[in-house]
Write a structure and sequence with these properties.
With about 300 residues, the protein is α/β, with parallel strands linked by helices. The protein has helices at about 10-30, 45-60, 75-85, 110-115, 125-135, 145-155, 175-180, 200-205, 260, 275-295; strands at about 5, 35-40, 65-70, 95-100, 165, 190-195, 210-215, 230-235, 240, 250-255, 265-270. Bound molecules: guanine.
């Protein structure tokens, strides 16, 4: 492998180290620790595993995380009501409220997300937070997008004037990341192209990328012939594929055909151990920010 490995796990550990101090400072001033409430609907194994990582990372930095488990049969009304009760602090102060996605098919996801007040929206999904980001005055930035930008900055990957190609136009990753990379300042000032399932000549566009981000959820989507020599390749995909040789009969892969691409790219993030741990670290940072904003408003 010739590419530099972008170790998200190590970077997340360093971010946690500084957050731990900041959380301790907050807790001394506020007389309580920051608190995150995660709503987990149903029994999806992947969601349960992500939520577990979020809760243990929170504990490592001194943030209290409560997971509220709800049966998969819960309807939209019940979930909107639950989020409303959390936002009224009926079950203790909820600085950050996160509804783990995806929700079951019968639920109106947008209505449930809209029930999370903008000032507790640590996912950065609320229209007010999306609007602030698009205006270049970010408050809560979606965690994965923030994590990708942080990874590029930390690795010293130049973004100013460079061509960043993002495959994927989701509200969670593709769109906010495009805004971050195109914004003014450190980790920004890039020329950004968003590609998606209807894009023609995907491979040719990707080959122009100095920074290539895959955020689709399709194993093997990015092959070595789509990568410009020396490019930074960031893999946001998390896919579980069958592998008889692996423990449990399956393993995690990203959207990038890792080994061949690592021979062409200048830098590459692995899956697992790349963007995933940074997403969690950014959630902790957003939760501390939510707690600080609330304290600043004179609320306990
Ligand atoms: N499911 C996958 N990624 C995310 C995320 O960033 N936030 C939430 N709430 N659910 C997710």
């Amino acid at each position: 492998m010739t590419a530099k490995l972008l170790d998200g796990k190590a970077l997340a550990g360093r971010i946690e180290d500084s957050l731990r101090d900041e959380v301790a400072t907050f807790s001394r001033m506020a007389g309580r620790v920051p608190r995150l409430v995660v709503v987990l609907v149903g029994e999806m194994a992947a969601s349960a595993s992500y939520v577990k990582s979020k809760a243990s990372a929170a504990a490592r930095v001194g943030i209290e995380a409560e997971v509220v488990r709800v049966p998969a049969t819960a309807d939209t009304e019940a979930l909107v009501e639950l989020v409303g009760a959390l936002a009224r602090d009926e079950q203790g102060p909820a600085d950050g409220i996160l509804v783990q996605l995806p929700l079951p098919g019968h639920v109106d996801t947008q209505r449930v997300l809209d029930a999370v007040p903008a000032d507790r929206d640590v996912d950065g999904f609320h229209p007010e937070n999306a609007g602030l980001l698009s205006q270049g005055r970010p408050r809560f930035v979606p965690c994965t997008a923030a994590g990708v930008q942080r990874m590029l900055i930390d690795a010293g990957v130049e973004t100013a004037g460079k061509h960043a190609v993002i495959i994927g136009r989701s509200d969670i990753v593709g769109k906010p990341l495009a805004l971050l990379l195109a914004s003014r300042g450190t980790g920004g000032d890039a020329t950004v192209t968003i590609c998606h399932s209807r894009s023609e000549n995907l491979a040719a566009i990707c080959r122009q990328a100095d920074i290539l981000v895959a955020a689709v959820g399709k194993p093997g989507l990015v092959t070595a012939d789509m990568v410009k020599p020396g490019a930074a390749v960031i893999d946001v995909g998390i896919n579980r594929i069958a592998d008889a040789a692996a423990k449990g009969g399956s393993r995690l892969v990203g959207d990038v055909d890792f080994a061949p691409v690592a021979e062409v790219a200048g830098a590459i993030s692995p899956v697992p151990g790349g963007v995933g741990p940074l997403t969690v670290a950014m959630l902790l940072a957003n939760t501390l920010l939510a707690a600080e904003l609330r304290l600043g408003q004179g609320q306990r």
